[in-house]
Request: fold
Amino acid sequence: MDSIKVMVNGLPGNVAVNLTRHILADDRFTAVPFSLTGPEITAADHTIDTTRIQLIRPQDQDSAIAAIKAEYGDFISVDFTHPSAVNPNAEFYCRQALPFVMGTTGGDREHLAATVRSSSISAVIAPNMAKQIVGFQAMMEYAATTFPGLFCDYSMTVRESHQQGKADTSGTARAIIRNFNQLGIDFSEGDIQMERNPEIQRSAWKIPEEHIGGHGWHTYTLTSPDKTVCFEFTHNVNGRDIYALGTMDAINFLYQQVTAGSKGTVFTMIDVLRAGGN
Reply:
């Protein structure tokens, strides 16, 4: 099988850099040496190992993409940009007929899905690209639909910590909270305890120093009305490799769907897992 050509957007962001490094090291993929970037980025390019990747600002996207498509042909785009860019970027991908994997959280997710469904391309859209966490989410969704109200009258606290540069609340936490709502718990996204302060992460959370700049720690604590019963669900991720590995599986999955003729379809990481995840 020919290698899958991939354009990773969001450089020089940490997640995009980590994914690109994995793409460059994997024979299944060929990196397209261009990346959509934010208006605040002044650099013209970014080098990863020995590969120079040209950065494209928003105002230059439409003019640059024609030449890129002419040189590289069909490719999969991957978005790890900024929440504020989610919807504009999705509209760009759809307008330019670029199948994409959306790993960026935030934005108007309903509009995002509608944009893909009304287009000529398909996409994988997920608030979390880590397969094991997605599997945990699927288990929680099963519980929520199978045992609605199971934790009625229980109270809940949600604590999540991410690197200082993460602009929004965890998309994974928001999704899990919706499951707990179905399970009978009265809790809103505004009640999430978010931590972005590195000093507190070191002293109170005991997050390893080498992962202060890249981690995702979540704990959901459920307590019975009389305080005699407590359930706690925790998933802590250090580093970014788990997201890169899951994203590469999503790229491979989307490539297979597009090759088979898929158009206007929104896939999730659950679809990736059901297909075998690689």
About this structure: DSSP finds nine helices and 13 strands in the chain.
